[in-house]
Amino acid sequence: MSVTDGFDPDGVKCVVWDLDGTLWDEIAVESATDDLPTPRPAALAAIDALAARGVLSSIASRSAPSVLDRLDAVPQVRARFLAPQVSWQDKSESLRRIAKDLGIAVEALVLVDDSPYERAEVEALLPGVRTLAPEDVPALLAAFEGREVTAESRERVRRYRTEETRRAEGERFEGSREEFLRWCDMRLTVGAATADEIPRALELAARTHRLNSSGLTPDRLRELASSDGHELYTARMTDRFGEYGIIGAALVDRTRRADGGAPATWSVPLLALSCRVAGRGAAAAFLFRLMERAREAGAEEFRVTLRPTDANLEMRILLRQAGLRRTDATATSTSTSTTAPAAAADSAVLGRTLQGDLPGSPVWLHVSDREDTEA
After folding, report:
1. Longest dimension (CA), the chain
2. What is the pTM of this model?
3. At a CB cut-off of 8 Å and minimum separation 6, what does 96 contact?
4. Measured between alpha carbons, how far apart are the two ends of the chain, in Å?
5. I need a surface site. Which of 13, 175, 270, 318 has the fewest CB within 10 A?
6. Residues 6+ apart with CB under 8 A from 350
């Protein structure tokens, strides 16, 4: 049986590497010089192969913090790792800190460590984290073979490095959080997905959890997006540091009435956003702009399908803040279309009227429609 049996590559966002005995053969603190041990070529090749597929790499090593300082002196190696943790703390605590620094769920991490004890400690305290020995890495790479790699995936590591710069600037910024966000000059654009954006929208559906309303599968999303009356929207964001890329996707059911008129209700079977933009108002701005577009198109009500999970509390809070409340409708009746998505038994439909004032986007975010979209 393979160590990756039952393994879902779509759920992996970062592989965390031990150092001594894993990334290199020797024990760094026992080196007679300040030179780092030579990394194993196969380990570096695996890290580069994962990066090409949009999977980040980090470090969790129980060693002297000075080892990280020595690693900083070797930029061609150090640049491969984000949010590294080198200290005498437990590996499970290091993984929690890595997940927090990267803004991802700890369950999205995989640990590669040569020590059975360290793997057992993580498995006991973080049961959602998969642990592997170094000899299991080829099987890990094989699990990603044949999976579609989007342009966004190939840029993910670079964008997370840019995120480290943002975080560092935020820590140095002398002012409030809102003043910093204004200074970042964030701009969100919303529009109908183009053909080359669809793979990224499918990726968001599969890989996001914190800001995912329903967990609609990529296959179902692709089927619905190509059916009559449905439209897939995407959101892009930039700031003074660079491009975030496509950070949001929403499937909208705007099936017309039998008389050919505009739909009275816009239903959203899926709203999904990247965790990289959590806490910056982008999720709210995307949702609110969709609501505005629905009203501009003549709709009177806006609905979102919600499947509550342990991970998407942030999305549930957002929907409530937007004024959406549980309706008497079932998720299968959000559209008159025969292609409306079937809901799981644990899903609900939240809705609100589009009459009166709608919530406004955060003041630090500039929101606009892309020119290639229809009103």
Report:
1. 82
2. 0.77
3. 106, 126
4. 53
5. 175
6. 303, 304, 305, 306, 319, 324, 325, 326, 327
Q: Which single residue is written with the structure tokens 């606009």?
A: 368
Instruction: Give pLDDT, residue 338.
Output: 37
On whether the CB atoms of residues 83 and 58 are closer than 8 A, the answer is yes
For the record, the structure tokens of 65 come out as 């913090």
List, as one string, the DSSP characters of 188-249.
EEEEEPPGGGHHHHHHHHHH--TTBSS---HHHHHHHHTSTTEEEEEEEEEETTEEEEEEEE
What contacts 118, CB < 8 A, 6 or more positions away? 18, 62, 91, 111
**Distance separating alpha carbons of residues 61 and 54, to the nearest angstrom:** 23
Element (H, E) at 147: none
Tell whether the torsion through CA atoms of 224, 227, 229 and 231 is positive or negative.
positive
Structure tokens at 7: 């393994």
